[in-house]
């Protein structure tokens, strides 16, 4: 059933079903992304209990606020950003060892609430769409160089090898692409 559901619905459609209160869609989202989110969380903490708690809290929050969050074209990206923020907030909150009294807790508490972060995510998604539109206007080789550098996080030498061009050409492609994005932003 899960494979059938995931193959029949795009991320946008699955997200909309979830936002409209479809519990099966929500369970499908959790089923599809829990493992990768958990693995991602291990980059920030080896405490599996903390990671599980953060995931649980994030999914509960999403379910409770589902009607107030914006749509997305990439559920995985939305969840990764949300989870990263949630786990960093939790790590910041628990950065001190031992018990923290109420007055100290105010000093340790993050400035930004989890709800504020979801507003930030929605704004960031609009910016991401604009960036994608601008990137689509770039020549193919500049797009490829940008992707390899900033999405695959490859160094200039590796990009040169992958694209079968010299290092200076990679630098030129990146420089031109970034200038174009700055000018049109």
From TrEMBL:
Residues 130-180 form the RNA polymerase sigma factor 70 region 4 type domain. Keywords: Sigma factor, Transcription, Transcription regulation. Coiled coil: none annotated. SUPFAM superfamilies: Sigma2 domain of RNA polymerase sigma factors, Sigma3 and sigma4 domains of RNA polymerase sigma factors. InterPro entries: RNA_pol_sigma-70-like (IPR039425), RNA_pol_sigma-70_dom (IPR014284), RNA_pol_sigma70_r4_t2 (IPR013249), RNA_pol_sigma_r2 (IPR013325), RNA_pol_sigma_r3/r4-like (IPR013324), WH-like_DNA-bd_sf (IPR036388). PANTHER family: RNA POLYMERASE ECF-TYPE SIGMA FACTO, RNA POLYMERASE SIGMA-70 FACTOR ECF SUBFAMILY. NCBIfam families: sigma70-ECF. This is Sigma-70 family RNA polymerase sigma factor.
């Amino acid at each position: 059933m899960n494979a059938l559901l995931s193959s029949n619905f795009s991320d946008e459609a699955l997200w909309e079903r979830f936002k409209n209160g479809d519990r099966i869609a929500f369970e499908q989202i959790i089923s599809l992304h829990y493992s990768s989110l958990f693995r991602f969380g291990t980059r920030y903490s080896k405490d599996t209990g903390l990671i599980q708690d953060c995931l649980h809290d994030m999914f509960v929050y999403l379910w409770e606020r589902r009607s107030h969050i914006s749509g997305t074209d990439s559920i995985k990206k939305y969840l990764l950003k949300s989870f990263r923020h949630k786990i960093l907030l939790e790590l910041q909150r628990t950065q001190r060892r031992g018990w923290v009294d109420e007055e100290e807790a105010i000093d340790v508490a993050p400035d930004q609430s989890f709800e504020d972060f979801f507003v930030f995510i929605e704004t960031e998604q609009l910016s991401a769409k604009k960036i994608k539109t601008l990137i689509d206007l770039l020549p193919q080789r500049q797009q490829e160089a940008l992707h390899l550098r900033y999405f695959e996080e490859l160094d200039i030498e590796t990009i040169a090898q992958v694209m079968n061009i010299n290092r200076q050409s990679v630098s030129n492609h990146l420089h031109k692409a970034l200038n174009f994005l700055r000018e049109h932003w």
